[in-house]
Amino acid sequence: MHVLILGARAPACLEWARAFAASGWEVTAADSLFSPVTRYSRAIRHYLRLPEPRRNPDAWIDALRHAVQTRSINLVLPTCEEVFYLGYGLERIPCRVVGMPLEALQPLHHKYQFAQMTQGWPLTAPESHLLESAAAVAAWADRAGDWVFKPAYSRFANRTLIRPGRRQLLEVQPTAQQPWVAQRCVAGKEHCSYSLLVDGRLAAHACYHPRYRVGRGSGIWFEPTDPPAIRAFVAHFGQATGYNGQVAFDFIETVDGQCFVLECNPRATSGVHLFDDQPEALVQALLEGSDALLAPTQQPRMIALAMLLFALPRYGLRRAFWQDFIAARDTIVRSGDWGPLGAQFPALLEILWHVASLRRGLLAATTADIEWDGQPMQEAACS
């Protein structure tokens, strides 16, 4: 059996490549970058460089379809935001695809629509309002102190404003096509969930606290947690939507134990690393589900290079940082598969080139060619 795993830039792709290889599959990884970290793993047999999906979604789908046909691919598994482009062209891919149609993914990706979806569920999003004009933003200028403002389509907390001042908020210029969301600020402990659902049934579930992050965005140190309310929410989500594939959510747990769901990421996230000690069971849960819910490790995981680059300058003088660093296992390093360790440096240099050429921040540059912000796919092909 032959699997094509998309998003080779992501450590999550590397995790899946190793899991499928351990399960006896032939693995091809694909991306639009030249030097993604998964390319250098012994877990993969081939690397396929695809065109940028954001630049021309139809050309990307055509290249993907050609690869499936010529390489005898049995399964396509997305890991990053290319999941939306895959959902757009789902019917054109002549093999099994782990994913959902774009029309099912869009309201999950839109932060206001997702917040509205949760109303009436046992666990809901905080109060949220849609902002589609500068005038709508101005109405909040004198009462922004208890609110969080963020683009309806965004990732890594990019451009998120937490309790902003009047002047900072008034710089926001949303439109009907690129709206923002005002969401009541809730203080507490952050949790991130990662789950596999098979036809709406929860097959694997992990939850973690991202103790260290790159800025406000992506977590790089993952402390396993398991609030029952969060697990129950994901099970309810699956039953309500019939979702199939990978899905992740961000939550806040208040001091009194109440949980609120903040947003949905209908794709892979770092939570998959918490299953790295049971790769064959993870693949089975993805493809077939399991009789019992697959549970994660209870030991922390981290991206060690990111910890040294981004957390060390801020926390390096604290003893707790080094205790956490020693306690966690690196998600990139694996005995017998050392290629990805050194590959992190050319991969980072390629992203830094995108930072300079696109004039975007580091995290924004990592997804600039694959992200989808709700624009019509035909419109994306012309941009």
UniProtKB/TrEMBL annotation:
Q: Gene3D superfamilies, alphabetically?
A: ATP-grasp fold, B domain (3.30.470.20)
- Phylogenetic lineage: Bacteria, Pseudomonadati, Pseudomonadota, Gammaproteobacteria, Thiotrichales
Which SUPFAM superfamilies has this protein been placed in? Glutathione synthetase ATP-binding domain-like
What name appears for this protein in its UniProt entry? ATP-grasp domain-containing protein
